[in-house]
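Hi there,

I know you've been waiting on this one. I reran it after we fixed the sequence typo, so this is the corrected version. Both the input and the resulting structure follow.
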Amino acid sequence: MSKKILVISTSLRKNSNSEALADEFIKGAKEAGHEVEKVSLADKKVGFCRGCFACLETGRCVIQDDALEIVEKMHDAEVIVFATPIYYYEMSGQMKTLLDRANSLYGSDYEFGDIYLLSAAAEDEEGVDSRAVSGLEGWIACFERAHLKGTVFAGGVNEAGDIKGHSSLVVSYEAGRNV
């Protein structure tokens, strides 16, 4: 059964390693017959949440920027995939900002259930991505029908393109094929 998948690439760097993971996930998902849309935050304006909670009353954020459209896409997707570089053992700031701005989804009749996290970091030790995973799980915990379906981590990749030939690309492709 075909699913509607939204892949959000949060890296601001061209040809980033986390975006390569996203592209492999997309390739696998499309080959499996799923409908996939990719959004990159690199060319988007996403401001900080003001904490006004107007979104919980109106169902929409009062800040007029690109987050409005992205959050709408998140609402309608059955599967959401976040791709992020790991900075200081955590998800990128722009990913966290988007999660905060998705507050209007709380209490809505959202479609998503399966959430994936794809991440890349210069360090290659076990657990480098654990804080990013934990941060995303904190967001997911607010959505009772959602759960973390899978993670893919690419360690030891620093410069753009370092991921070429990395085993995590195959893992990401397979994750997309098996959505």
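Quick highlight: The chain has one domain: 4-177.

Best,
R. S.
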